[in-house]
Structure formats: structure tokens, C-alpha cells
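Notes to self after the Tuesday call (sharing in case useful).
The group wants a holo model before anyone commits to mutagenesis around the pocket. I volunteered. Ligand is NAI. Logging inputs and output together so the record is complete.
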Amino acid sequence: MNEKTPAKPEIAPVDFEYASSREATDLVEIDDSYGLWINGASRSPASKRYFSTINPATEEPLARIAEANERDVDRAVKAARKASDSWRRTPGKERAKYLFRIARMIQERAREFAVLETLDGGKPIKESRDFDIPLVAAYFFYYAGWADKLEYAFPGLKPEPLGVAGQVIPWNFPLLMMSWKVAPALATGNTVVLKPAETTSLTALAFARLTAEAGLPSGVFNVVTGAGPTGASLVAHPGVDKVAFTGSTAVGKAIQRSIAGSPKHLTLELGGKAPHVVFDDAPIDQAIEGVVNGIFFNQGHVCCAGSRLLVQESIADHFVDKLKRRLETLRVGDPLDKNTDVGAINSEAQLDKITELVDVGIEEGAGIYQPACELPDRGYFFKPTLFTGVSQSHRIAQEEIFGPVLSIMTFRTPAEAIEKANNTPYGLSAGVWTTKGSRILWMADRLKAGVVWANTYNKFDPASPFGGYQESGFGREGGKHGLLPYLSGVR
Ligand code: NAI
Ligand code: MG
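Result:
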């Protein structure tokens, strides 16, 4: 290298070396109890109530979390309203500085955030380390870049922030879903009240402290913790201008009904039952890896999980045999173990739901296959599961299981693949495996899905919009499209 070449800005390498889960746990500081994050500081809840969050891999309590009632939500929304005037007038290039700083600080603390995400939610550390946290930083970097370019993004128009955004997020990708909502909201000059999911509040609260250290003005970002009723209070608050929700279709519909007729803006990112279509000319080994990743990534707690495998009849037996053999090699267990492929189910309620739907699959006559792996004695775990002989009317072919369970069906022609793929009320994502480029385009035109992956699966990039239609919701997150839900005067 030429001596005069300027040194690249160094990002401290993140050390993920630890000898045991216990040692990993010692890497993060967890308080005994957490207040609500309102107006730049932690506050005791007016409700005086707390609930506990546990580590789903051990069932041990991690901390107590404040439960926000209507008064608490009101306090948070008022703080966000008050901060809104000056934040919306802050020049875009200044707002960008905060977001760039936040993005860098997330990178610097990647280890702490990854371990905390894994402890509180059960996902394998290799996923929080290599997927969630790097992407969280990437979304903040990406939207920081838009903050001073809104007039260029929407030439001839006058983009204006909406005001206060009330954002309700799920437990499957806690920080990542937060970043998809918070980064574009702040970049466009909105202020935020965030309601994380009740089983995974810790990383949002750690992030709140980070925003204070980054110097973000008080009230621009607030967190109210609690369960469904807290989320409902936030959505219903008259001081909220924009509601963004990711979660179940049932709650999404309830939210839409509850704000119908109000001037609130709404985006919904809901469930899915994605088809993963494998043609007989597909590169089989890669397709096997894609299918495994599509359904077992994050224990299948993924809205875009490839939960219905449609494999062409001529290769079906061979493909399913290979898939079964691959399942035998998946390591299920301690999420903090760096070799773990499938971690803990997020909650007992979710484990019950998965168990119930798997029982339904057996009763409906599908053939079940599970590898011979042993599950830990404690914590919520479920074996990677395949169902063969599934018919389209089976509940396991129609309903979102949101667990490590794949329903396998076959098809003969591309037209039949499309017909089966589109036969659900959802439309979030889809996957296609084939070596023919023309077939990929033909399929992508006909698949009812917001995102179609070809010869890959679960690939994300901040520049790429994501979202569904039909019962998977509406509105886009990511890319320039992701700015639209937070602005008026644009299209
Ligand atoms: P949920 O939809 O109840 O929870 C998502 C978020 O919404 C949480 O923060 C929750 O506290 C909040 N919430 C619940 N009721 C609310 C209400 N009435 N108003 C406002 N906010 C409310 O999902 P849940 O019960 O945790 O999981 C049930 C099923 O939903 C899962 O089995 C899965 O099928 C689906 N799901 C889908 C997700 C996705 O990303 N598409 C994420 C989470 C769950
Ligand atoms: Mg938890």
C-alpha cells in the first residue's frame, strides 16, 4: 500500500470470544428493573406496575420492566409532541449527524446488543451477531444518508414530516424492526414513541440510553413498554399522527379498525405463508441450503419465512430425502453457543401455538418428520419439523405457524406452482429456485408477493423496499419507499 494512502476509518473489531454462556451473560449489564424512556430519561411508571422478562432458553428472569398505562403513554406522546417542533425544523444535515453517530455507536457496541438480543429473545448468537445487529447499523447509516436529500428524493414536491410516530414492533427481530421504523422516522423529521414487544424490551431500552449518549435531543425518541393494552393506548392516542405496526394479522386488522375515520396515517407489516418454489433444474445443494435457511432461520419466527415448500414432482422424493438428512445436522440448543443453528422459541405462548398447529397437521393426516436431536431440559425448544403429504386445504398449509415447521407440497407445471403458491390470504414474500432466468421473471410477474427472492432467500438490504399486500399488510419499509410513510406532500 502506498504510504500516503489515508488510513481507512477503523471500526473496533468486535470480540465475540467467550468460553461459556455464563461468561457471555457477564458481558452485558442488565439492571434489576427498567423504567419507561420518556423525554430523554428513565421514568417510573405512573401505573406503578412492572412485569418480568425472561430468557426463553433457561426460563430464568432477566429483569423487571415498567408496564405503561394510558397516563404513561400520554406522557410519552406529549414529550414527543413537544420535541417535534424543533426536531422538524432541525436541518436535515444536522439530523443526519445524529443518525450517523447512532449507527456508529451500534457498531461499536455490537457485542453487547447481540448478546442482549439473544438472551432476551432466544435467537442464535450467530444470527444476532452476523445478521440483526449489522443490519440495524446499516439501516441507520442508510436513512442518515437521506435526511438532507429529501428535496432531491421528491423533486418538485414539498416533503414535510407528519409529526409524532407511534410504532409497535414484534419480538422476532426486536432491534431490527425498531431500526426499520425509527431510522426513517427520525431522518424525515418525525419524533417517535416506540412500543417494543413484551418478551423483548431490553434492546430497545439499551438503544434508548444510546440515543441519549449520542446527544439526541430529549423527547425525540421515547419508549413505552408493556403488552397489547399499552400498544392499543399508543395507537389510540389523539396526539399520534402516524401509526406503524409489525406483528400478527389479527392485531393489524384491529388497529386498522380502531383508527378508521381518524386522520392518522397507517402502515402495517403483517404475517405471511411464503411459498418456496424449487424447480427440477435448480442447483439442488444450494436449494437445500436456501430452504433450510428459509424456514429454520430464527426458529421460523420470521414473517417472510419460506414455510411452504413447493417442489417439482420429478425431483420431490430425492429433494425431501436430502432435506431430511440435512435436518439431522442442525444443532438445536443454547442460543449463546456460537455453533447453534436453531435457538429457543421466544415464549411459552408461542411454543404452545406451534405445538397446537403441529398436532393439527398430524390429525389432518400429513406425514411428520423430525430429526433425532435432543432438546435441552429447560427452556422453550421445538425440533425442526417437516410435513409431507400436505394438501392445500390443511391448516398447516394456510396458517402462519411462526415456528421451525415446513409444509411440503409438490407441483408438475409452472402454472400449477403459481396457482398453489398464491393460494393463501397472504402476500409477503416468495422464493424461486431454477437455473432459467426467463422462468424467474415469469414467476416473479405472477407470484402475489411483495418480495421475490431468486436462488437465494432472506436477503436484506436497507436500499431495498420490503412489505406485502393482501393480508400481509401495506406500506413499504426500506429504500426510498420507506421514507414515504413518514412524509406528507410526497407520492
Ligand atoms: P402480536 O401481533 O400480538 O404482537 C406484536 C406487537 O403488537 C407486540 O408489541 C404486542 O404487544 C402488540 N400488540 C398486541 N395487541 C395489540 C393491540 N391491540 N394494539 C396495539 N398493539 C398490540 O403477536 P403475538 O401475539 O406476539 O404473536 C401471535 C402470532 O402473530 C404469531 O404466532 C405469529 O404468527 C404472528 N406474528 C407475526 C409477526 C410478523 O412479523 N409478521 C410478528 C409477531 C407475531
Ligand atoms: Mg425475554
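Two things stood out.
The chain has a mean pLDDT of 95.
The domain at 275-454 is CATH 3.40.309.10 (Aldehyde Dehydrogenase; Chain A, domain 2).
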